[in-house]
Amino acid sequence: MKIFSDRDLARHVNPNSGVERPDRLAAALEGAKRARDARAGIEMLRPEPALRVALEAVHDGRYLDQLRSLSGSGGGYLDPDTATNEHSWEVATLASGTAVAAVESALEGTASFALVRPPGHHAGGGYAMGFCLLNHAAVGAARARAMGARRVAILDWDVHHGNGTQDVFYADKEVLYLSAHRSPFYPGTGAVRETGWGEGRGFTVNVPLSARSDENAYAATFAGVFLPILREYRPEVVIVSAGYDAHRADPLGGMDLDGGSFGRITATVANLTRELDCPPPWSSKAATISTRSPKASRPPSSACEKTLPDGSFVPKRHRGPSGRRGKPSRRFGVFRLQVSGLRHQQYVDGRGWPGKCSV
Predict the structure, then answer these.
(1) Ranges assigned E (strand) in 255-325
(2) What is the mean pLDDT of residues 346-359?
């Protein structure tokens, strides 16, 4: 695996955030170096900043000019949560360049990881939001399309819905956006009914999960919703917005995953790319890892029927909100998705939990 990152990404400081801060990058880089030193097959590389043409494939030129001007004047606020300093423009373009490098590597056949900050999935084509200045996953997807990929999938498992990524591709049938996120929660988007517009209708897939959702809920989401859709869509590259704030040790996320959960989810996605004979996935981790020491992981069997030798999971038959197998306490609705000309039908209850899953 290739990991793309740069210590200069720590130079951006959002004075209004005690959560998204530079020391998270240092902690994540230290973890990556320990893995490399343990001979985990990791190569660490420094990227180049994204070119203006790559950014304009996603972002409005006037917004880019505003962001560069604000940073060049010493910084300021773009919204109540999102601010810049004098280094923010250079850092944001370097972060998007990290995504571009990871996509190029993935399309060449090597699994890649873009370790970046500030994060990106709340930034839309013409706005900043939620600590995000530029949308790195979207810039990476645009680069994949420029390199000839006709079907790109973006999988977002950050605890927050990626409203910016959804907005960028909401009317686009060549980019499939899949998100599993806590709801109700910031930023207030990501309802099941948000499925796209125009030619893009059916190419946005949201699975809202209730607070304290554990690995079984995520496993059911993948087995019952994401994997069947990805198998039909057959993406040529899979981009993962890999936020880790659904970890139970995160002070704000309010979910119940552990470190092993993310490993099994990642293995499941990697196995799917091999099954579909598409390039290995690349991930963008927007430094959302908690700096607190994670608690001890629970055994995989607490959430899964079994863990396969390749590290992926096979979920238990999903338990509904009532706790009874196959007998949820809420009435089921029908969630239909139009993907690649065929119709998928998944059953979800009022809180967005998959009611049926198959593996």
Answers:
(1) 282-285, 304-307, 313-315
(2) 32
Q: How far is CA 287 from CA 37, 81, 116, 187, 243, in A?
A: 21, 17, 6, 18, 8
Domain ranges of the chain: 1-106+121-134, 149-359
Cα–Cα distance for residue pair 170/190, rounded to 1 Å? 12
18 exposure class (CB count in 10 Å sphere: 0-12, 13-18, 19+): exposed
Q: How far apart are alpha carbons 128 and 68 in whole angstroms? A: 13
Rounded Cα gap, residues 281 and 109, in angstroms:
9
Q: Are 107 and 239 in contact (CB under 8 A)?
A: no
User: Torsion-angle region of residue 72: left (phi > 0), alpha (psi -120 to 50) or beta?
Assistant: alpha
The label of the residue with tokens 């996120």 reads 181
Average of per-residue pLDDT across 133-144: 98
CA-closest candidate to residue 83, choices 165, 21, 139, 156: 21
d(Cα 190, Cα 156) in Å, to the nearest integer?
A: 11
Peptide bond connecting 235 to the previous residue in cis, omega within 30 degrees of 0: no
Q: Which residues of 114-140 are buried (b: 16+ CB within 10 A; e: fewer)?
A: bbbbbbbbbbbeebbbbbbbbbbbbbb
Residue 339, Cβ neighbours under 10 Å: how many?
A: 18
pTM: 0.81
Determine whether 122 is an active site residue: yes
For the beta sheet containing 2-4, the strands, ordered from the edge strand earlier in sequence to the opposite edge, are 43-45, 2-4, 112-115, 282-285, 237-241, 152-156, 175-182, 204-209
Q: Where are the alpha helices (DSSP H) in the chain?
A: 23-37, 52-56, 61-72, 88-107, 136-146, 163-169, 215-221, 227-233, 259-275
Confidence of residue 284 (pLDDT cuts 50, 70, 90): low
Report the phi/psi class of residue 294: left, alpha or beta, with left for phi > 0 and alpha for psi in -120 to 50.
Answer: beta
Please tell me the predicted confidence (pLDDT) of residue 272: 95
**Arch. (CATH architecture) of 149-359:** 3-Layer(aba) Sandwich (3.40)
Residue 198 · residue 225 · CB < 8 Å: no
The one catalytic residue in 12, 59, 121, 122 is 122
48 CB contacts (<8 Å, ≥6 apart)?
Answer: 94, 97, 101
